């Protein structure tokens, strides 16, 4: 019997057609843009069982009249005829007249199929028959100019599809299209086709290398912002060099693309999805990981009601492109949360490029007029861009997977946020005062504690040669730990920091390695359901303990007492919560690290982070509840799958014991949140409500 359709299940179109493999070099010479590219992608998806979960479509050839919306009759005629017999002997000669182009007898059909495929899926997504789609096509399209094939591209697939929606399908209501071109090369063809057209916002991020990188013209410069009514609707982010990776792209997304997309409010997003900026690509020299691509895509799903069409462009490492496409399809299928981490800081040149782009475009897009340096500093509490890939043993070794260059050390931090490298920090006064040192100054001393309480996160540990021991890193970062159970009672919570036990506890706690008191305490309410589950704990004896439903719901309200502590302390609280509560006694060795800085970026991104190392524990799921003073608010609760188990009775639900209840009431009353009566009613209500 078929399972009932999950209404949240996405309908994702997946288009692949073997006929597009017939386009190949005429004499079988090796070429990076070869049929194995799309075969490798398709095989990967098949081996992962992806097609069964998608709406699989095959290609249709595009009609000339649609292609004519961007290409000249002469160009259409040429591509139509390249594969006919009379042209056969001339393939090589014709191709040699173009820039980076080859033809064989399958080329013409493949070119028509590639266009038709992108049109087909775009129409279906625009209509709503599909939520999103990906077309695994070749030849690619974004270099193709109106009268010229170039850069392995014959017809401009994405541009034709965009024009088709705008001009031929007005009834579908697509009036504004955002084209995101993340191929490592500049999408010169697409840019030119919509240069004066505000209905298409063309955004391309690419290697530029000051005009030296293919297609090596000035077209990819950030100065190219569009013309006439299209002014402001062309955005180029030109990298100065290779080596760009996840952190650089995410920075551009956060500081340029997303603010603009928010304001532009497109009706659909077409992605010129080349994967030649992927790690290990032989042409690109950049290092986006599959996780990076999935983040970039995920960040776009919030726009255009999720109407996203991805069309393959470049990408020449078979494994990299297959893995990257797979990661993207999984995002479209919404199977996640995303799991991964960003392993570097943006390059120093990345901030410069972002600044140039914003400066160029800020009169068109208000959101780009925000002064960057401060934005960068403030947003840098997100250690997702601070590589300290600490493994879950307490080692300080730093892994560099992919070999793409990143050594995560002091020097990196310093060169990234240059102004900070000139600042000296008062180490005994974490983040309180940072003063200029030895700089002849007309400026007043800079105090960063308000604006950037996490400035210390950017400071390397001087003691350890380059790389930092995890405790010392975590100890320099603060978070708000939000408690909603017995930890709302401060003396109870302090046992997790200082060690020992208080009234009502059966067993003493070891405390955190760092026994210093919380730096602040504040209360808040959060839109999550409080409930009581499990039936016995070592600490509290018989009875259920508090959990927060991991999903938020605006109709719920739970009190939360937040303690400002270091990440190291949060880590140790997490350990104690999880091992002391386990009946099976399988406790984590004291002193283990469960978190690294990049996890905080991930949890901020996804709102929750199930920790594999704790999956046997009761509080294995970290929730991100927003920010306070630029610090993340984190709490811990059960996983979503445990919610189902509580509901089904597979795991026990039971109300709090008197001792436990008293502790919560004391927390709420002594924290001056509500009266004793109200507190009792609040707990009873939480204990009675259905999950
Ligand atoms: C689609 C694409 C690259 C052309 C490079 C020519 N083209 N050297 O990635
Ligand atoms: Zn490319």
How would you characterize this protein structure?
Strands 2-1-3-8-7-4-5-6 form an eight-stranded parallel sheet, sandwiched between helices. By secondary structure, the protein is an alpha/beta fold. The protein contains 22 helices and 20 strands. α1 crosses α11 (318-332) and α21 packs across α22 (676-688). The structure holds N-(4-aminobutyl)acetamide (X5A) and zinc ion. Zinc ion is lined by residues 183-185, 274, 276, 313-314.
How is the secondary structure organized here?
Blueprint: E1 12-15, H1 36-47, E2 55-57, H2 64-67, H3 73-81, H4 85-88, H5 91-96, H6 107-127, E3 132-135, H7 157-168, E4 177-181, H8 188-193, E5 200-207, E6 234-239, H9 246-264, E7 268-273, H10 290-300, E8 308-312, H11 318-332, H12 348-361, H13 372-379, H14 410-416, H15 418-421, E9 423-425, E10 434-436, H16 470-474, E11 478-483, H17 490-498, E12 520-526, E13 528-533, E14 536-537, E15 541-542, E16 545-552, E17 558-566, H18 567-580, H19 597-606, E18 608-610, E19 621-628, E20 631-637, H20 640-648, H21 658-670, H22 676-688
Parallel strand pairs: 1-2, 1-3, 3-8, 4-5, 4-7, 5-6, 7-8, 11-20
Antiparallel strand pairs: 9-10, 11-17, 12-17, 13-16, 14-15, 18-19, 19-20
Structure described in brief:
The chain has 691 residues and is an alpha/beta fold. It starts with 11 loop residues before the first strand and ends with a helix.
């Amino acid at each position: 019997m078929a399972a009932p359709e999950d209404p949240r299940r996405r309908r994702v179109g997946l288009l692949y057609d073997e006929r597009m493999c017939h386009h190949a070099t005429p004499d079988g010479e090796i070429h990076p843009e070869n049929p194995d590219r799309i075969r490798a992608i398709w095989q990967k998806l098949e081996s992962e069982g992806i097609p069964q979960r998608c709406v699989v479509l095959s290609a249709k050839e595009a009609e000339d009249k649609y292609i004519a919306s961007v290409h000249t009759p002469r160009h259409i005629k040429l591509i139509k005829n390249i594969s006919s017999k009379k042209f056969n002997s001339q393939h090589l000669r014709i191709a040699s007249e173009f820039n980076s182009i080859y033809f064989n007898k399958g080329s013409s059909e493949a070119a028509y199929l590639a266009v038709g495929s992108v049109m087909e899926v775009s129409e279906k997504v625009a209509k709503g028959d599909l939520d999103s789609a990906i077309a695994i096509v070749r030849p690619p399209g974004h270099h193709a100019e109106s009268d010229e094939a170039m850069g392995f591209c014959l017809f401009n697939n994405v541009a034709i599809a965009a024009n088709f929606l705008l001009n031929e399908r007005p009834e579908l209501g697509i009036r504004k299209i955002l084209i995101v071109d993340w191929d490592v090369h500049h999408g010169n063809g697409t840019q030119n086709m919509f240069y004066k057209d505000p209905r298409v916002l063309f955004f391309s991020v690419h290697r530029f290398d000051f005009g030296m990188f293919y297609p090596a013209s000035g077209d990819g410069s950030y100065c190219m912002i569009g013309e006439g009514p299209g002014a402001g609707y062309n955005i180029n982010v030109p990298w100065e060099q290779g080596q760009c990776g996840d952190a650089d792209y995410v920075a551009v997304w956060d500081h340029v693309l997303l603010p603009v997309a928010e304001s532009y409010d497109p009706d659909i997003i077409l992605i010129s999805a080349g994967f030649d900026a992927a790690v290990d690509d032989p042409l690109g020299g950049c290092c986006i990981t599959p996780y990076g691509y999935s983040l970039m895509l995920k960040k776009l799903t919030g726009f255009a009601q999720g109407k996203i069409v991805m069309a393959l462009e470049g990408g020449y490492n078979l494994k990299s492109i297959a893995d990257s496409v797979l990661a993207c399809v999984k995002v479209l299928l919404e199977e996640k949360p995303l799991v991964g981490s960003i392993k570097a800081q943006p390059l120093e040149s990345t901030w410069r490029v972002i600044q140039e782009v914003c400066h160029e475009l800020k009169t068109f897009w208000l959101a780009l007029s925000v002064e960057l340096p401060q934005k960068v500093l403030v947003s840098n509490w997100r250690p997702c861009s601070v590589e300290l890939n600490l493994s879950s043993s307490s080692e300080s070794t730093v892994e560099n997977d992919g070999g793409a260059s990143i050594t995560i050390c002091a020097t990196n931090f310093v060169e990234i946020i240059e102004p900070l490298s000139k600042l000296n920090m008062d180490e005994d006064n974490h983040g309180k005062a940072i003063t200029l040192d030895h700089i002849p100054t007309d400026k007043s001393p800079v105090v960063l504690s308000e604006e950037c309480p996490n400035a210390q996160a950017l400071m390397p540990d001087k003691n350890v040669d380059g790389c930092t021991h995890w405790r010392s890193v975590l100890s320099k970062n603060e978070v708000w730990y939000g408690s909603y159970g017995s930890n709302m009672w401060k003396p109870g919570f302090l046992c997790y920091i200082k060690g020992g036990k208080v009234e009502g506890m059966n067993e003493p706690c070891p405390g955190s390695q760092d026994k210093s008191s919380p730096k602040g305490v504040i209360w808040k309410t959060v839109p999550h359901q409080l409930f009581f589950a499990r039936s016995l704990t070592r600490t509290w004896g018989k009875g259920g303990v508090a959990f927060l439903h991991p999903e938020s719901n605006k109709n719920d309200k739970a009190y939360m007492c937040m303690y400002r502590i270091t990440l190291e302390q949060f880590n140790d609280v997490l350990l104690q919560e999880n091992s002391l509560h386990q009946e099976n006694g399988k406790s984590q060795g004291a002193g283990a690290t469960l978190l690294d800085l990049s996890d905080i970026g991930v949890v901020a991104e996804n709102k929750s982070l199930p920790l594999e190392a704790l999956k046997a524990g009761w509080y294995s799921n970290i929730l991100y509840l927003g920010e306070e003073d630029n610090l993340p608010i984190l709490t811990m609760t059960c996983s979503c799958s445990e919610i189902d188990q509580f509901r089904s009775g597979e795991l026990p639900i039971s109300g709090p014991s008197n001792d436990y209840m008293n502790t919560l009431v004391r927390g709420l009353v002594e924290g001056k949140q509500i009266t004793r009566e109200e507190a009792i009613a609040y707990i009873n209500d939480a204990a009675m409500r259905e999950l």
